[in-house]
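Subject: complex prediction, re-run

Hi both,

The earlier run crashed halfway through, so I resubmitted it with identical inputs.
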Amino acid sequence: MSSQLYLSSSPHVYAGDRTEQIMRGVIYALLPACGVAVYFFGLPALVTLALATFGCVGFEAACQKAMKQPVTVKDGSAALTGILLALNLPPNAPWWLTLLGAFVAIVISKQIYGGLGYNPFNPALVARVVLLISFPVQMTRWTAPAPLFSGIDAVSTATPLGQAKESVMLTGSLPSSMQGGMGDFLLGNMAGCLGEVSALALLLGGAYLLVRRIITWHIPVAYLGSTVVLAGIFWLVDGSRYPDPLFHLLTGGLMLGALFMATDMVTSPITGRGQIVYGIGCGILTVLIRLFGGYPEGVSFAILLMNAATPLIDRYTQPTKFGYVETKA
Amino acid sequence: MSVAMKNLKTFPGGLHPPDNKQWSADKPIEDCPMPDELVIPLAQHIGAPAEACVEAGELVKKGQLVGTAKGFVSVPIHASTSGEVVAVEPRPHPMGKALPAVVIKPDGEDAWLPGLQGGDPASLSPVELRDRIRDAGIVGMGGATFPAHVKLSPPEDKPIDTLILNGVECEPYLTADHRLMLERPEAILGGIAILQKILGVKRTCIGIEANKPDAIEQLTAATSDLPIEVVPLQVKYPQGAEKQLILAITGREVPSGGLPMDVGVVVQNVGTCTAIDDAVRRGLPLVERIATITGPGVVEPKNLRIRVGTSLQYLVDQCGGLKGEPAKIIMGGPMMGMAQLSLDVPATRGTSGLLLFTSENVPVRPEGPCLRCGRCVRACPARILPTTIAAYARLDLTDEAEAYHAMDCIECGCCTYSCPAALPLVQAIRGAKGAILAKRRKG
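This time it finished cleanly. Structure:
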């Protein structure tokens, strides 16, 4: 008879996916967007990505060591936060800004709450917003894409959303001609944060997440759908003042937000019903901030606000338990 | 044969563990030879254990009463072969401790008790039929071992209109019911006729998962002239859980805390059905059953007709012995079966299978924090929030766990199976259920 017999209560078999595989899956899903970022913004993008990733992993390990906790950087969650943070920074972010962001993301908004699974707010978004409010100049110094090997020098420019906002504030209507068309927006040939640029690359990654069943359709569909509907209503009311829904979809951080940031499991509702409510909330807040807020972009604020509402949403969207549905006998 | 996979009935939630039935699904049932000793526990069912009515030294025949039922929710226990009672004493039991058992040394004759007489169900009254079922010691043979006669005695204010035969066998690895449906359809139909007469139902359905197309085909053909529907069901665990099966077939939800009879349904396993047929038509008490001996840890997986009381070690020996070092011995299936301390325990009336895992099948899974990924919530057929209840349970917050409906958990294990953080969710909920029940008893 064997010397080692395991005694545990059922079940005795388990599904394959582990936490680290989920994290790795999301990282794989972000690779196309990272690739596009490096292509359009060159070496600075690569540096920012590397700094943010290694910064986050380093801060996590240091923090856990300091708190005498087991070091869990192998689960990949810190690396993922780092990549998401980088994708939320402008291409020419100074090194100290990136590292400060990594510190805020990992130490302030994750480890202090107890580490993975216990943070109420999306760490990368908290870092982005802290940096945006504290260092508005550095965080909104946009450059036009200068594709690798194209020989073009990076020139300062505004994001499409920024152009729209400025024009509406100054003249009361949208600019008569925007730099770039929908095709450029789709591919990512426009100014913006590293990860905001290519809707196509992000959609590819999002599709991978759906196929791998790492995320479900609820949050992206509810978020993007409610944005399109609400933006569409404003556009129909006054198309000269409010941009069309497609413009909303393809510019700024919406795709990144709806597919990768709002879908962060830790900070979003746990049931499908709750995720739909949350996604719609994100969409409404995003459109309202974009159209009426002080900032041209509202995705980060919208998601963080809905993160705050997540416990409440969870409470009111519990599934109808088995045996509580009236059926006729 | 075409079982259309689309539009098959099922329930919300659940999941698809690899079924691993291929190892034994094509193996016809073999008679397990006679072991040197049979250890027949007096507690083999839900309810009060039977009380021994034989003493050491007595000679018994196969089918002779060795333990009498104690109360309504209890059943008698019978000798599963002829021979000498060598001891009546506590012996290691699959529940994990030593429990009273009648130990028989077989005489090799395997002679039935003279005078066991079958009857024609048509000439017996429903009450007489039910008494025969009770006296034969028949329990739910899907694994729950609830006394069958209790289910067949609904109070007058709970009219039963539907009988469901459970041929789902949704536990991975197990193929005992599958083989039974292929090899003894006439006994299943015989049992159904008896149950129909006792209950006076309007509708009778046999629910079978679509991964057993041969069984579906065979029973569909066999029931073409009978008032019995064969219902192919989506392959999804736990499709064979009683309440999930009722929902899939009838669209009725057994109310929280209620029983199938609350929605006019009685469910019996197909194995129970053949035992009922044997009891009534042939007069035979329940002393043997079909069990699947399988898993990566046995040389040759088989479906065996086993005598109650046969040791697990003997069953493994009949399947070519152990393959490699066993790391886990599971009585029943991998999702709800019970891990055993050793192979030196007897198979009982509820032993639907014996599953042997080697160390490769017992992964080391360090627990991590809950990611709130929601997989347990999506998989939960009770539609409760497993991770939330488990979190309360771990903090001993019994009232909160109860408020989140811990008592509605059916312990199918889907939550733990699906958890990427390897959290022991169903285990924590089981703990909470125990604490809630203890509190209720006190309160």
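The CA atoms of residues 290 and 296 of chain A lie 5 Å apart.

- K.
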